Amino acid sequence: MAASRIEWTEQTWNPVTGCAQVSAGCKHCYAERIALRLQAMAAPGYGRGFALTLHEDRLSQPLGRKKPTVYFVGSMADLFHEDVSDAFVDRVLVTIRQTPRHTYLLLTKRAERLADFFANRPVPGNVWLGVTVEDRRYGLPRVEHLRQVKARVRFLSVEPLLEDLGPLDLDGMHWVIVGGESGPDARPMRLEWALAVRDQCRAAGVPFTFKPWGAWGSDGVRRDQKANGRILAGRLWDERPELSGALL
To answer: Distance between CA 116 and CA 125 in Å, rounded?
Structure first.
């Protein structure tokens, strides 16, 4: 486990590492870049680089943390990858149920499997389920699969936002996160695309979080990500769902 610089979580927990590309949002995967760098550094757990790897020794990690913590589960993987067995996902959920003090965010691009997996299993109350929505072709159909799952919080990670998404059906959604792409080959996110998502969230009463612009600023100029910052329409957007009387 590790502290995270991701704006919407506190810690990352990776009982699985590695993945395979499934859609346009995967093209410049940050996790793959990091995994290969960690492999070159001989970091524990990354001997196989970005090849899918199950880490049984990590399953119990959250048990030892007493402080209530928000965990992003699988920042270096997709827990619902087709080569992660249902049995292993169930073991992850065992740990989650044993630690109701923590909140766990599960994010996937494999939304069809997500819906199938939870069709005959309850979602623990301390789990928030999300899908990636990077474009219309791949991303929007995932929203319909997510909507089928009875979860306390359902969220959309609209990152990287690669095009105008058009009308969004936010019925049953509790949170939307938008962000741009970083890295040497990053694709730009246009201001009007981000504003269109924000406006629809406001109209629907859905909390909206805006992450960094990434490698391209709101003015369409490429520069250092820190210089581009997180300002959208003159302000920071850090709205989040409320859970158990406290904000994330």
So the answer is: 18
> What secondary structure does DSSP assign to 119-173, as a single string?
GGSPPPTTEEEEEE--STTTHHHHHHHHHTS--SEEEEEE-S--S---S---TT-
Q: Which are the contacts of 9, defined by CB distance < 8 A and separation ≥ 6?
A: 70, 71, 72, 105
User: How far apart, in whole angstroms, are the C-alpha atoms of residue 118 and residue 57?
Assistant: 25
pLDDT digits (tens, 9 = 90+) for 209-226: 999 999 999 999 999 989
User: Which parts of the chain register pLDDT below 50?
Assistant: 245-248
Structure tokens at 179: 């962000």
Angle 154-157-163 from CA coordinates, rounded to 5°: 130
End-to-end CA distance of the chain: 18
What confidence score (pLDDT) does residue 246 get? 36
Centre a 10 Å sphere on the Cβ of residue 210 and count the other Cβ atoms it contains.
25
Q: 195 in helix, strand or coil?
A: helix
> What's the sign of the alpha-carbon dihedral 219, 220, 224, 229?
positive
What's the token pair of residue 68? 């209530």
Angle at the Cα of 25 from the Cα atoms of 24 and 28, rounded to 5 degrees: 100
